[in-house]
Amino acid sequence: MIEERGFAGRLGTFLSFAGPATLFFVTVIALPFAYGLFLTFTDWDGISSGFSLVGLANYTSILSDPTVRSSFLLTLGYAAAVVTLTNLVGFSLAYALTGRVRGKNLCRVGFFTPNLIGGVILGFLWSFIFSSVLTHVGKATGIELFSSSWLGHPRWAFWALVAVTVWQKSGYLMVIYVAGIVNIPQEVLEAARIDGAAGLRKLTGIVLPLVMPSIVVSVFLMLQKGFMVYELNLALTGGGPYGSTELIAMNIYRTAFISEQYGPGQARALLLFVTVVSIALLQVYFAKRLEVES
Fold first, then answer.
1. How many beta carbons lie within 10 A of that of residue 212, not counting itself?
2. pLDDT over 80 (residue 200)
3. In this predicted structure, what is the pLDDT of residue 260?
4. CA 13 to chain centroid
5. What angle do CA 159, 164, 168 make, to 5 degrees?
6. Nearest to 148 by CA among 129, 132, 135
7. What pTM did the predictor assign?
8. More confident residue, 284 or 32
9. Distance between CA 86 and CA 38 in Å, rounded?
């Protein structure tokens, strides 16, 4: 009887503290995810009240649909470019602005500000810049690269997406890297200085290993951004020209809600989810092996 009362008491305590959060997780995340997984095996159009089970047909259609393959490969390239460039720029800014630089706090605010602009507004803003401002500069200066809008060329429209993302997110990663750099113990830096470590040797041997937790977080955040981007893709290029910049998130949306093929769209979303989780786990695993204790 005492053990039963003890278990009931522990259960009551658990439900008192963790019950609301557990209920929220089950109803908002777990059940919708399970229902979405079930819908990948149906032909539901997202509107009608009835549907039929189609087995693995929605998954096999992914392999036979060239638009899925092109969108997925394009997204992989976009994510790789964005993760690499934003982290390089963000870390470079942070490393420069943690030194003895006048007005570094003002510079940090300025570089972080683009992150506050929403994706749709950002897309329309840069659409105007690429279509009007840069083309005017190109014609006035004779620079061939800016003689016509990047958004009208399949190859350059992709890099326009990358450039805008780097401009927006580098300042955000800069803040993360600044926090990591300023938390490096001064004794370690002083010991490195006494031993003659400076410049590139100090950067690669001391700073980078000790800010590896910041690198892990920054890479993870940009992986999520790279694979899940939609609003910028919609506002800046709309997937054009000729579908050359249609990333996988836009492909999923158009399949599920425009073409009213919710089952295939949900299957593609699940593929995207599995891809992001797999890459993130591999990234964390290998990055953790590079971490060192300060």
1. 16
2. no
3. 85
4. 38
5. 145
6. 135
7. 0.85
8. 32
9. 37
Q: Which residue has the tokens 């979405």?
A: 36
Per DSSP, what are the bridge partners of residue 294? Answer: none
- Token pair recorded at residue 240: 């054009």
In the numeric block, which tokens belong to residue 132?
Answer: 């009007």
pLDDT-derived band at 94, boundaries 50, 70, 90: very high
Q: Region 271-284: what's the mean pLDDT?
A: 87
User: Rounded to an integer, what distance in angstroms lies between the CA atom of residue 235 and that of residue 160?
Assistant: 12
The dihedral formed by the CA atoms of 72, 74, 80 and 81, expressed in degrees to the nearest 10: -160
**DSSP letters spanning the chain:** -HHHHHHHHHHHHHHHHHHHHHHHHIIIIIHHHHHHHHHTTB---SSSS---B-TTHHHHHHHH-HHHHHHHHHHHHHHHHHHHHHHHHHHHHHHHTTSS-TTHHHHHHHHHGGGGS-HHHHHHHHHHIIIIIHHHHHHHHT-GGGSS-GGGSHHHHHHHHHHHHHHHHHHHHHHHHHHHHHTS-HHHHHHHHHTT--HHHHIIIIIHHHTHHHHHHHHHHHHHHHHH--HHHHHHTTT-STTTT--HHHHHHIIIIIS--HHHHHHHHHHHHHHHHHHHHHHHHHHHHH----
List the beta bridge partners of residue 42.
Answer: 53
Contact 57, 42 (CB under 8 A): no
Q: Each residue of 13-29: pLDDT tens digit?
A: 877 888 888 888 899 88
Q: 264 preceded by cis ω (within 30°)?
A: no
